[in-house]
Design goal:
heterodimer, A: 7-stranded mixed sheet, 11 strands, about 50% strand, B: mainly beta, 6-stranded mixed sheet, 3-stranded antiparallel sheet, globular
Chain lengths: ~120, ~110
């Protein structure tokens, strides 16, 4: 079956613009995670959903970042008023059950560049 | 704060030689530990986890609570092992990743 998909794969935006990054998890996967990965670093936890409920958003760096998963499937990570420091690879992952015991399946990532 | 430390950014090993990728974690309880791998032009994927005690692609990792380490080992490196390796620690609903080690297998 299809794996986790993310769109767009690449996004170049100007400073101050809003961006929306989409994640389509594996069908039937209850849990969905967002990570940010800067160059030379490992993935950094942003937020996590169990079905449609956002269980933990402690990793979101500031209030310009928000995420939703309204129907418990597709999720959108929105960054408002983008800044150059937001440039990174944004990764989505999904898993069958509650973290961290269930394997997380990662999408290909969205590379965001803010100019 | 929880930390996962991978001291080597790059490790170059000759084909057929043993491989050891180092990882140290900070949590003093009973951690959930993983190794993830990213091959060139592929997605990040789980390689192994300590609770399953499996050997995947010839790799093993032993949890050493005394040294708070979870080093990844393989007795004989193969060229297809070249990849980025991330050690990770799970607790509650988060997985904390190290910065990663790029393993380069020399022919």
């Amino acid at each position: 079956g299809a794996g986790v998909s993310q769109s767009p794969r690449y996004k170049v935006t100007k400073r101050g613009q809003d961006v929306a990054l989409r994640c389509d998890p594996i069908s039937g996967h209850v849990s969905l995670y967002w990570y940010r990965q800067a160059l030379g670093q490992g993935p950094e936890f942003l937020t996590y959903f169990n079905y449609e409920a956002q269980q933990d958003k402690s990793g979101l760096p500031n209030d310009r970042f928000s995420a939703e998963r309204p129907e418990g499937s597709i999720s959108t990570l929105t960054i408002q008023r983008t800044e150059q420091r937001d440039s990174a690879m944004y990764r989505c992952a999904s898993s069958l059950g509650a973290p961290p015991n269930h394997e997380q399946y990662f999408g290909p990532g969205t590379r965001l560049t803010v100019t | 704060a929880q930390r996962v430390t991978q001291p080597e950014k790059l490790l170059s090993v000759f084909k057929g030689a043993p491989v050891e990728l180092k990882c140290n974690y900070s949590y003093s309880g009973s951690p959930e530990l993983f190794w993830y791998v990213q091959y060139s032009r592929q997605r990040l994927q789980l390689l192994l986890r300590h609770i399953s005690r499996e050997s995947i692609k010839g790799f093993t990792a032993d949890l050493n609570k005394g040294e708070t380490s979870f080093h990844l080992k393989k007795p004989f490196a193969q060229e297809e092992d070249s990849a980025m390796y991330y050690c990770a620690q799970g607790r509650d609903d988060k997985i904390i990743f190290g910065k990663g080690t790029r393993l380069h297998i020399l022919p």
